[in-house]
Automatic annotation (TrEMBL):
Protein name: Ataxin-10
Taxonomic lineage from the root: Eukaryota, Metazoa, Chordata, Craniata, Vertebrata
Gene Ontology annotations for the cellular component aspect, listed alphabetically: cytosol; midbody
The protein's role, per its UniProt record: May play a role in the regulation of cytokinesis. May play a role in signaling by stimulating protein glycosylation. Induces neuritogenesis by activating the Ras-MAP kinase pathway and is necessary for the survival of cerebellar neurons. Does not appear to play a major role in ciliogenesis.
Residue span(s) of domain Ataxin-10: 383-479
Length: 543
């Protein structure tokens, strides 16, 4: 212990020498020795307050000298040494705080936070030919703040009070990924419910928007994603204020993070307030018409495309919120949400049938095998299927909504959207699911289905392309290989692959003229999903 005491006293004297002498390389070595010694737990706990008091004076002197030299210092060698000394001071401070509440409190009381933040503010404005010369002290200083804040509320509050929002925003805008990442770590460590509410104020919202922009442009930075998912999404006021100020690109990012949060957490633990769900439902209703512009030439505009993609992302979130998340099922009663969804499905469906466009049904299965052209990818993939899914969710065990869909002639509309469509994987399953929810304990809807007349089989050209014919025999549909075509084994594997990859279920007995009002009550099914509809008969049989 005596030897340790001698080392501590010797280090303290050496640091005092840095304060009183002209800076040189030997002083840098002294600080490096101190930094290395602070890795030892016993040494950290034994360092006297006097040593830290001297260190903060050294840091203050460095801050004053750097600021006095200015941004255009001609003595590059001296300026560089001062930056190296500053970085080593920050490293020593960083190491001293590791698992040491005592040292955290000492450094806070001695004024390290204020002088460190002054240095960081200055360093973030300096440009040098060798960027790492500046980035090294920047990174170390921010790491110090992170270690100082961990588990210490007083330090968190002091750092936040001085840095928020301008310095944080300045550091997040630095052209150095590590600096940005470490700053995000400090913000995440300091954040709490009250500070999140501070972020939602108009004068501070730019910082939150910068975090969300980084989530989009640098998704590999984990801390910004954690800030968004663990803090931002839990504040309805912040979500609403950010959303109103965001570009459509960043709105899509926000919605993607929200969707991931809904899927990853337990149904009761996602932390997203009900008011956020209401806001998103209203946003979907107000902006959903933007999707229809994709059917015209205006889709070539990136702004128009991004606005439409925002609507598509909103739909995905609403589908997830109304899928086994009890806390969001009040959306079944959200004013006109169901009406808007049914009407949008009707418009999209009619647009797709009126001419060849992005909403038209397609049988482009080559893209699923990996041989297709990725440039032909549709931005509205699964959009109609998800509209049908949302209708089904909103009608689950809800008689009023079941009746409303019938009154809007939505049942026949849904039945007319069950054919194979490579732009809408699983559309048939979602249609069957939705019809099932519409019929459950609803005699009026069941009667409507029972009155539908059979008008022949629907177009099954997609199956014919796979080498199969559909034939009716004694009220049953038979699936037969076309004579002289590719071997049955090859055809079967191709058809099976498509069913496995995309989950298609085809209504083969829709109206012969394609109209929705005369849709047949015979639904062909695969994979056993037809059992969902006891009131609808008809099985496709392989021969």
């Amino acid at each position: 212990m005596a030897a340790s005491t001698d080392i501590i006293l010797g280090t303290s004297a050496s640091i005092a020498g840095i304060l009183n002498e002209k800076h040189g390389p030997e002083h840098l070595q002294t600080l490096k020795t101190f930094t290395a010694a602070l890795r030892d737990v016993e040494y950290r706990d034994a360092v006297e307050e006097k040593t830290f008091s001297t260190l903060v004076k050294v840091l203050t002197r460095l801050c004053e000298e750097l600021q006095a030299a200015g941004l255009d210092s001609e003595d590059v060698q001296t300026f560089t040494l001062q930056l190296q000394l500053t970085a080593e001071c920050f490293r020593a401070q960083r190491n001293s705080c590791v698992q040491s509440i005592r040292n955290q409190s000492l450094l806070r009381e001695l004024g390290f936070i204020d002088v460190s933040l002054k240095l960081l503010r200055f360093l973030s404005t300096v440009n040098m030919e060798i960027p790492d010369t500046i980035f090294e002290p920047l990174r170390c200083g921010i790491q110090f703040l992170g270690n100082l804040a961990v588990g210490n509320q007083l330090c968190k509050d002091d750092i936040w009070m001085i840095s928020f929002p301008d310095l944080f925003l300045q550091l997040l805008s630095t052209d150095d990924e590590k600096t940005v990442n470490y700053t995000s770590m400090v913000i995440h460590t300091c954040l709490d419910e009250a500070k999140v509410e501070d972020l939602s104020k108009p004068q501070n919202i730019e910082l939150a928007l910068r975090v969300m922009e980084l989530c989009r442009t640098q998704p590999e930075l984990d801390w910004t994603v954690l800030i968004a998912t663990q803090h931002f999404l839990k504040s309805s006021s912040l979500v609403e204020n950010m959303y109103s100020e965001m570009s459509h690109h960043d709105r899509v990012t926000l919605l993607e993070l929200l969707l991931a949060q809904l899927r990853e957490e337990g149904s009761e633990d996602c932390g997203i307030p009900p008011s956020v769900a209401r806001f998103l439902a209203t946003s979907f209703q107000k902006g959903c018409g933007a999707v229809l512009t994709l059917a015209t030439g205006s889709a070539s505009s990136d702004e128009v495309l991004q606005e439409a993609l925002t609507v598509i992302s909103l739909l995905d979130v609403l589908c997830e919120m109304t899928s086994d998340h009890k806390q969001f099922m009040f959306l079944q009663d959200h004013p006109d949400l169901l009406v808007t969804t049914v009407e949008l499905l009707e418009q999209v469906h009619a647009t797709g049938k009126a001419s060849k466009n992005i909403f038209s049904a397609a049988q482009n299965f080559s893209s699923f095998s990996g041989d297709g052209d990725s440039s032909s990818y549709s931005p509205v993939i699964s959009f109609k299927a998800h509209l049908i899914r949302l209708i089904g969710n909103l009608c689950h065990s809800n008689t009023n909504n079941q009746n409303k869909v019938r009154e809007l002639e939505g049942i026949s509309l849904i039945l007319d959207n069950c054919n194979i469509d490579s732009n809408n994987p699983f559309i048939s399953q979602w249609a069957i699911f939705t019809i099932r929810n519409l019929l459950e304990h609803n005699s009026e809807n069941q009667k409507l289905i029972a009155t539908l007349e059979r008008c022949g089989t629907a177009d099954y050209s997609a199956l014919r392309e796979l080498g199969f014919l559909v034939e009716e025999r004694d009220g049953t549909l038979l699936l037969k290989p076309v004579q002289g075509s590719t071997s049955r084994r090859t055809r079967t594997h191709r058809a099976s692959d498509i069913v496995k990859q995309r989950g298609y279920v085809d209504i083969l007995c829709a109206a012969a003229d394609g109209s929705s009002t005369a849709a047949s009550s015979r639904i062909a099914h695969c994979c056993g999903v037809g059992q969902l509809l006891q009131s609808l008969s008809g099985v496709i049989t392989w021969e």
